[in-house]
C-alpha cells in the first residue's frame, strides 16, 4: 500500500505563481509555472506579500464578503418570502423540508459566491482551478482516499463525543438532531443529502476553502490561512452557541475537523478531499452503526498509520514556524469579533464590513494603478 502522502499530497506549500501538474520527472511530481495572464495576485502584492497593509486588505475582503453576503441573503430571503426551515414538527414532511433548505442554500451561497467570484475575476483568478475545482493532476480515487483517511483522523474526537452522549446526556441537543429519531425513509435521505452530506459540503467548501482560504494564503501563508478559516468556520455553527458540555465539546471537536479540511485542501490544491471529509462527517449513524463507525475509523488509522503520521509531523513543523503566528492570531481575533458581532448586532457590524470591503478594494485598485 503506497503511503498517504505519495498518493496525492504533492506540495509542502502553496505559491500563487505555481500550479501542480502531474509531469513525470524521475517518478515524482513537479510544479509548473502558471502563464502570467492567470496569476492569482496582483504585481503589487506579489512584491510585498508580507506587509501589514496586504494582510489587512485580505482580511477585510474575506470578512466583508462573508458578512455582507450573509446579510444580503437574509434580506433577499425575506423579500422573496422564503420560509424558514423548522425542525419541531411531530410529523415533518421531508420533501418540503428538502425544497425549503435547497432554496435557502441557493440564496445564501449565491450572495456569498457571486461577489467572491466577481472580486476573483477582477484579481485575475479566472479559472475554476483557482478555487480548488480541479484534480490538480491527481487521480480522483486517490483524492477520495485522502479525504476518507483524513476523516478517520480528525473526526474521531467528535464521533467519540456523540457515542458518550448516547450513554451520558451532556446537554440539550440541537433541534436538527431530533429529525434523526424519525423513520429513515427515502424522503428522509433526500432531505439529508440536501441539508447535510451532499449539497452543503460542496457549497461550504467552495466558499470557505476555494475562496476564503485561497485568498488569505496569499498574505498569511498556508498555516495561518488554515487556522483562520477553521476558527472562522467553527464559529459559524451557531447551533452550538450556548453553555452546555455537549455544545462546548462540539465546538472543540470541530476545530481539528475544520483544520483537517483546510489541510487536505492546502496539500492537494483540490477541494474534493475536503468535500469527502466534510460529507463523511455529516452522514448520520444509528443503532449499532454508532459504534461500528468509530471502530472502523480506529482500524483505518492503524492500517494507514505511517501515512497520516507523516502528515501530522509535516503540519507540526509548519506550526513551529514563528512568521505566521502574530498576524494570523491577530486576524483570527478580528474575524471572531466580526463573526460573533454580526450575529449579535448586525446593524453595527454590517456597515463596518461594507466599509472594510470598500477600503480593501479601493486600496488594491490604487496599488494596481501605481504599479501600472
Summarize the structure in words:
The protein is mainly alpha-helical. It has 14 helices and two strands. It has a two-stranded antiparallel ribbon. The longest helix has 37 residues.
Order of helices and strands: HEEHHHHHHHHHHHHH
Shape, per Cα inertia axes:
globular
Kindly report how far apart the N and C termini lie: 52 Å
Which percent band covers the strand fraction?
under 5%
CA gyration radius, whole angstroms: 21 Å
What is the structural class?
mainly alpha
DSSP summary: helix tally: 14
Q: Give the uncertain stretches in residue-range form.
A: 1-49
Number of strands: 2
Outline:
The chain is 69% helix and 4% strand. It has helices at 4-7, 43-47, 52-80, 94-122, 140-154, 156-167, 186-197, 199-235, 245-268, 272-282, 289-303, 305-320, 325-344, 346-371, and strands spanning 18-25, 28-33.
Protein topology:
Layout (H helix, E strand, L loop, with lengths): L3 H4 L10 E8 L2 E6 L9 H5 L4 H29 L13 H29 L17 H15 L1 H12 L18 H12 L1 H37 L9 H24 L3 H11 L6 H15 L1 H16 L4 H20 L1 H26 L1
Antiparallel strand pairs: 1-2
Helix pairs in contact: 3-4, 3-8, 3-13, 3-14, 4-7, 4-8, 5-9, 5-10, 5-11, 6-9, 6-11, 8-9, 8-10, 8-13, 9-10, 13-14
Write a concise keyword list for the protein shown above:
globular, 372 residues, mainly alpha, 2 strands
